[in-house]
Amino acid sequence: MQEYLNFLKSDAIKDKLSDFLRKILSVARPRDTLGLTWLFMLGSIAWLITLGVAAMNMRTYLVYNSNSPTIGPIYYTFLTIHGWSAMLGLVPDAALAVILYSMYKSDLSVVHVRAITTLFWIANISLALALFGGPDMGWYMYPPLAITDNAAFQAFRLYHGATMGLAYLFLALNSAAGAMAALVLVVDSYLTKKKDQKINIFAAYGVAFSLVIGVTLPALTASELWYVLAIWFPSAIKVNPLLWVILFWFYGHPVVYYVPFPLFGALYYYIPIYAGRPLFSERWARLNIFLLAIGSMLIWVHHLQTFPLPTDLRAWITVSTLVLASGSGLTVLNLGLTILTGKGYNYKDPLGMTFLIALIGFIIGGVQALPLPVNLINGVVHNTYYVVGHFHLVIWTLILVGFTGVFLDLLKASRPNLEYGVKSRKLMLIGILLWTVPFVGVGYTMSMAGYLGLLRRVIAYPPMFTDYMQLMSFLAEVGIPGLVLTISTAIAEYLKAGSSASRVNAFSPSPPPPSFMAFKEMRETVKEIGNKPVNRGEKIGGK
């Protein structure tokens, strides 16, 4: 026992612990743009794990035959944790991670590194504190349930009274910090852009949609602060449900594009590389930024189709949504022509495969959205699993697979000597396909069930949908190991490259001094000249 205690007190253990702590601090307090990218990437992965665990718990409750009415509140708590972790945690962190990496790839830098780091921790810790209260009303936070606290219904399992207002204050800090971080990135991009030099298409999309985040996210902050005041001063402040919903959806529709549109920039950047030719039309791509950025902030009303809206407003919903869809269609056309007119797309490279699947996934998920702006169709499927299938297809393919592609390239940028081996590339490709195929199946199963009438966000559903629910859960269980396989294989290669680099630095003999190298090179040259047969007839030295 004493030997063990002495071992723990040894300098070797202290050195390893201090080295480990230094590495943790270097990630928690980055010093440059690449370090910030890592911080937001790891934050995204943490929220992805959280929402994934919540989702699998939800699916367990949905398919368990012996459920009782007491399971209902637990299910809805996990539903809200899943939604908040996704929309308030994963989405802003992943969007800013992709935007930061786009800046790095275009030689733009973050000037206010400490400010961005501080805002990251404020946003993520605040969201964690709000989630700790056990929210129970869905990620939309619609009034009046979202501020109800009585015997019949409680918006939070643990937070009541004034502490419920504190929870919404935490959420307001989360959204305000995200908005400020996005605006700081826009400013820093402007400050570090080289004069008379156009930033690449990846960063162009990243910076443009960082501005969209900075403009729309404050609407969520305002609605959350309204709740805080209404809870703390109920006699003086009242919540108008319609105005609250308008505020929320001004943020709530653009938020679904926070990650996809910066990833459009990634597709424009990487797909030409693996297609072996320049982008078919960079002019189309850059002009499309204006259509997508402006359009994403103007069509939020289509989320209110079940409200009693005027006929002219309904007409605007249909036209404006299809105009925005045309911008997405232009992206698909541009990238499709790039692939078809290229020298042969390199889908055998894991990065090439991820971005190809991200594009295909966006197509198959986006096509399902085209009927939704039509008033007659929307009224039928608005609150069904058809819509859930549509946006989850986009999430599981464009967002998660595209995000994985950016992560794989981030590993290579962080470790210049990293080259994925043949076996590792095969494992990553298998993992990508193992993830994609089952989850596309889940998406279409959801949409089919929704078309038949399965309502979303309900735990008590007709028995006819039991087989659909079982199939969704089974396919999800099959697909999850795929993404884990891809990411874990890449990380293993990253660590292997790091250890090999350390061994080279530690055990390779030091290079000889320049003077010795020069002497050795001169000696070899003299020896070569001495051994060369001389032609007596040739002139020496040009004389």
From TrEMBL:
Q: How does it sit in the membrane?
A: Multi-pass membrane protein
The membrane spanning regions, by residue number, are 33-54, 74-101, 113-134, 166-187, 199-222, 242-271, 283-303, 315-339, 351-370, 390-411, 432-454, 474-495
Principal location class: membrane
Gene3D superfamilies xrefs:
Cytochrome c oxidase-like, subunit I domain
**What are the GO MF terms of this UniProt record?**
cytochrome-c oxidase activity; heme binding
Where is the protein localized?
Answer: Membrane
Which residue range or ranges hold the Cytochrome oxidase subunit I profile domain? 39-527
Coiled-coil stretches are none
| InterPro entries cross-referenced by the UniProt entry | Cyt_c_oxase-like_su1_dom, Cyt_c_oxase-like_su1_sf, Cyt_C_Oxase_1, Cyt_c_Oxase_su1_BS, Heme-copper_oxidase_sub1
Which keywords appear in this protein's UniProt record, sorted alphabetically?
Electron transport, Heme, Iron, Membrane, Metal-binding, Respiratory chain, Transmembrane, Transmembrane helix, Transport
Entry GO CC: membrane
| Any GO BP | respiratory electron transport chain
Q: Which Pfam families match?
A: COX1
Q: Which family does it belong to?
A: Belongs to the heme-copper respiratory oxidase family.
Q: This protein is called what?
A: Cytochrome B6
**Whose protein is this, by species?**
Sulfuracidifex metallicus DSM 6482 = JCM 9184
The beginning of the lineage is:
Archaea, Thermoproteota, Thermoprotei, Sulfolobales, Sulfolobaceae
